[in-house]
Amino acid sequence: MIGVPGTFKVLAALSGMLFMGYCVYFDKKRRGDPDFKRKLHEKRHQRTFRPLKTSRSATHMSNKEIELYFQNQIQRGEGLITNGDIEGGVDHLINAILVCSQPGKLLQVLQNTLPMEVFTMMLIKMHAYESAERSSPVLMDEEGVSALE
């Protein structure tokens, strides 16, 4: 005779198997949708490289708005770094770099003006952000063709 702990284990295992079965069924149904690859491609295509903490993408801003945003981010970044909030200041400087038309020149200026530790932290954060943006996996279909094609 199965005791209460044994019954609980059986019910838990059965519930887990039912849940996994539902997940497999739902995934198969989703991937079988004729528009799945098209929607996936559109979703990935819409994902663009955006500034870290902006509500609007730089592609939807006018030149004047970008210039004001750039100046604002530089000022806020410098102010926060001066007040001791290094991470917050670095985030604002990264936002300025992301919308800058000549980021290489801006990085050279920042390298010459910022303390080496702050500049290094900024480069590390930028690298981590760019890596996260690029790390979306590429799905393959049955023929080994990328779902993005």
Automatic annotation (TrEMBL):
SUPFAM superfamilies: Mitochondrial import receptor subunit Tom20
Record-given protein name: Mitochondrial import receptor subunit TOM20 homolog
UniProt family annotation: Belongs to the Tom20 family.
Keyword Calcium: no
The organism's place on the tree of life at top rank: Eukaryota
Gene3D superfamilies assigned: Mitochondrial outer membrane translocase complex, subunit Tom20 domain (1.20.960.10)
Location relative to the cell: Mitochondrion outer membrane
GO biological process: intracellular protein transport; protein import into mitochondrial matrix; protein targeting; tRNA import into mitochondrion
Gene Ontology molecular functions: mitochondrion targeting sequence binding; protein transmembrane transporter activity
Species this chain originates from: Drosophila suzukii
Parts of the chain that traverse the membrane: 6-26
Assigned keywords, A-Z: Membrane, Mitochondrion, Mitochondrion outer membrane, Protein transport, Receptor, Transmembrane, Transmembrane helix, Transport
UniProt-listed InterPro entries: MAS20, MAS20_rcpt_metazoan, Tom20_dom_sf
Gene name linked to the record: tomboy20
Species classification: Eukaryota, Metazoa, Ecdysozoa, Arthropoda, Hexapoda
Coarse class of the protein's main subcellular location: mitochondrion
Membrane topology: Single-pass membrane protein
Annotated Gene Ontology cellular component terms: mitochondrial outer membrane translocase complex
